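The freezer alarm interrupted the setup, so I double-checked each line after restarting. Inputs confirmed:
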Amino acid sequence: MSVVEQPRETQQQDINADLGFGSVVSRESQRLLNKDGTFNVQRQGLPLLHSIAVYHYLLNITWPKFLAYVTGSYVITNALFAVAYILCGDTALSAFGPQPMPARFWSAFFFSVDTLATIGYGNISPNNTAANVVVTVEALIGLLGFSVVAGIVFARFARPVAKIAFSRNAIIAPYRDQRALMFRIVNEKSNEIVELRATVLLTRRKPGVDGSREYHPLKLERERVVFFPASWTIVHPIDNESPLRDLNQESLTASDAEILILLNGFDETFSQNVHTRSSYRAEEVVWGARFQPMFNPPREDGTISVDIRKLHDIQRVAL
Amino acid sequence: MSVVEQPRETQQQDINADLGFGSVVSRESQRLLNKDGTFNVQRQGLPLLHSIAVYHYLLNITWPKFLAYVTGSYVITNALFAVAYILCGDTALSAFGPQPMPARFWSAFFFSVDTLATIGYGNISPNNTAANVVVTVEALIGLLGFSVVAGIVFARFARPVAKIAFSRNAIIAPYRDQRALMFRIVNEKSNEIVELRATVLLTRRKPGVDGSREYHPLKLERERVVFFPASWTIVHPIDNESPLRDLNQESLTASDAEILILLNGFDETFSQNVHTRSSYRAEEVVWGARFQPMFNPPREDGTISVDIRKLHDIQRVAL
Amino acid sequence: MSVVEQPRETQQQDINADLGFGSVVSRESQRLLNKDGTFNVQRQGLPLLHSIAVYHYLLNITWPKFLAYVTGSYVITNALFAVAYILCGDTALSAFGPQPMPARFWSAFFFSVDTLATIGYGNISPNNTAANVVVTVEALIGLLGFSVVAGIVFARFARPVAKIAFSRNAIIAPYRDQRALMFRIVNEKSNEIVELRATVLLTRRKPGVDGSREYHPLKLERERVVFFPASWTIVHPIDNESPLRDLNQESLTASDAEILILLNGFDETFSQNVHTRSSYRAEEVVWGARFQPMFNPPREDGTISVDIRKLHDIQRVAL
Amino acid sequence: MSVVEQPRETQQQDINADLGFGSVVSRESQRLLNKDGTFNVQRQGLPLLHSIAVYHYLLNITWPKFLAYVTGSYVITNALFAVAYILCGDTALSAFGPQPMPARFWSAFFFSVDTLATIGYGNISPNNTAANVVVTVEALIGLLGFSVVAGIVFARFARPVAKIAFSRNAIIAPYRDQRALMFRIVNEKSNEIVELRATVLLTRRKPGVDGSREYHPLKLERERVVFFPASWTIVHPIDNESPLRDLNQESLTASDAEILILLNGFDETFSQNVHTRSSYRAEEVVWGARFQPMFNPPREDGTISVDIRKLHDIQRVAL
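Predicted 3D structure, all chains:
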């Protein structure tokens, strides 16, 4: 079976099982969904530069990096306009007169700052028509540019971003008279999330078939919590209908299995829905473990608290 | 049956079958839904200019066109205020003095830029009360105007726009022991869309009845994907309950059939729901074809990638 | 039964039937829901001025009114600061010198404009510490004030507002072998609305019981349309289970009946959900009528169009 | 049973009953959910300062406090830049000359205002390169800073905040031939909320088990109102399936019971969903009471009004 010509039977099945990841998987085992929720599928053929991509990028870089870009653009813009004023001739700015370089450049540069930021002290002023035209252009660019920057600065603050942390491992734990797959999550930010809902899927290579993947939803003991003040342990009981019922650690790993997770909830600070994804590969599932409680012993005054640094703490148990 | 007087029976049926498109169709076969998702029904009697229409227009034109409008408005506004300052008399601006036209106009123009952009170098300043009043007006207009422009510039960046591309053709392909109607989609932008849901309808002229349309929902093999990292092939199996079961290429074309599609999903970059529409006319449905895989052969390091330029590639097969 | 002391039986029923309107109705027949969707119930005891109320008000007034408020505030603010500068003494501004009133006021006023709008020509400048302090305050107020105005201006453009027009009358029309209550709606703006959903309720005074209201949901022949390009006729068939089955024009009017409507849909321009309400009183229901088609005869080139001015056109028919 | 080592049986049950609050409760009886809807569970181990936390904080403080912060930052920033200009030497600003302290400081301070707010009168101007560099930095900081402040000011106005007030007490009232748990709510703001939905849970310590909590959803007589113009009485009938059926005031209090409430609805002013939470502890439930009507007697003109100050008024009745 090559990638281009698939037997009819297989292709149909793939379409059926497809969740948007497709069925082509490489011999090298790579995860489908990275721990941070980004997808491990590259899209080729996208236009090089989308305004959306730039915007997305500027929203997601760190503050120091963002401020470096802003400062860099600001300095470069002023330098370019300084050159433009110099090209307008000796009479362009009132300060030029017999002023030689590089002093002239700096006069032009600081005059540009004066203009771009719409300060306009007037200690230097445009003296000929060419310089006035450049001022006209620079004022417009300054106002539009700073409004874009202002918008992005604000969006960086105001955008709802669920920062839900997942336990490092999923576990297979004793649960009632059987076993269950469990992992737990905690809200790492101070905003409150309510009505949180989880969707969990198992994907693995189909046994016997070369390279083709299958996807199974995993039924949860509770799909949704109304409140999410502390932590939530998401539990898939491995009962007779679970796709995990006949699998063990070896068969899970051998079939490149991966647990895919999508969470969505409502962020109260921003009044918007938020989504988070993550996944566990077979190697990240610990068979025979239990989560350590995250709750601290209650204080004297009765205050209950949870220590989110204990998120990953597990304890081995027999299955 | 004229448009104005319908037999009672027919009108009732129309209301029942109506999806908002109405049942009046012309002899000329025109599509209901354009490929870009806009509707092919004109609304007459709308007020000429809505603020929403202007806003909508300014959001959706290209960047060069948008910037041309902004620049044009900026130049025209300054020119109009230049005229206003000139009308304020010889003493209006400190620069006027004995200055003749057109030099006076340019002084006034650049002073207007100075004011509208709130730079205020002060090399030219308002000298009489009339000019000061115009300055007062221009400052307000400048501040309001630039805030509107800033808002729209920002909205152009920050608005969630699903750019989902549809395969050029829908196909009728072999599927299990029967056939299925399929088309596929890909996310053309770099933003991620999750929880994507599809609604698909078939509309065609009713056989026998003059001009009246009927609408049938098409049941999908999968109505929703949780993840959408690469492509999604949407499949309507043509089973015994499908409205397509007794139709073929000729009868579909003869009855002006059209497949209407509505997609909605959640855009992660903007934390908002997005909708996309499109349609396939009977002529755009290829009978006896299959989609070529879009996935590239996996690379040595195991990276999976999809080539979105292969979206439209189909291959003829016997049905 | 007085308003304050209700027999136990009745109060319980009321709670049960309550939709948020309560059961106290006056002898005067007043509608519950105004045609524009506002409620006809006043809330007493609200704090006098909420920031939300002010914001809401400023979003919903007409543009001329809004601009009048902005201009008014701008002039008044400048006048107040002009007085402040004058109170700072003869040396406050460079222009004051021996300048008498009212010329001094105007100097101070235009200097205030210069400062509030952050122009700063410098032809007048603050000369003593008091004036400088006032400048410091005015600059902050100017920047904050204009940013609020800018935000509201932008929100007025960018807020999703469904402008769905309802037919003036609801009608009782022949429908299949029975009757149906119908009304129709049209999108009056150029933005597109999809996935529109209708909820319709009948409310009337309970027969026999003094003043108490009952509420019944009306089952619709179609609760939701996927597309809404033209118009939608909403139909409640009056079958054996309809609360309208035994009512006629007189009994409907006598019992102060009102048809309450809530529409919600998704606005594509703003990527947000929108809601609209309206209602029909018994007097606004026409018994024995049918809506005239709103579709124009198709043009030669096959273009379909709907004339939204025909929204209200009905034609009498026998029931 | 200590907090760290739980018997296997218990831990499993806890996971099952967990709603995100966890099962560790202290001997001191503390409420889980505060009256204002914040959670009574502390999260330890959060990073000290999140941008989201700062943003959230600045959105939720009172206006006077917010304006105090803004004014404070403005004064401090200008003072810091004043020091920077002084450090640039005697020739930094045109006003310095032989000017001694503190006059020099104030010149520098007011020049900083002039620059930060981008006024730029020009009566004082930067004279050496160091001062010009500081101006360049201050202009950028001013523009970015004010855009952040502007964004937050606007967000404070424009953010949907449901201000739904809850009756001080929940009551156990006679209801049909049985009893019901009731509480009532009112919209305290002038914005309209529609499609309001309530979720109500009972939580109490499990009888017999040490410290472990159980959670039960309470079935409501009506879970959702379409309109919410006045008040809404939320009713849980205590029937044979109610978890409250065998409880009385003493057993409820003894088991640290708490009624947890989540409301969500659609805010029409902001076109967004809003959520509100609250809770009633056992001590806040009044056994044998009924709510006084909030409706005023209808006025002569038929106007109906509700007095939201009567929200908490109850009247004792026998059960």
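Quick read of the result. Chain C has two domains: 51-158, 162-316.
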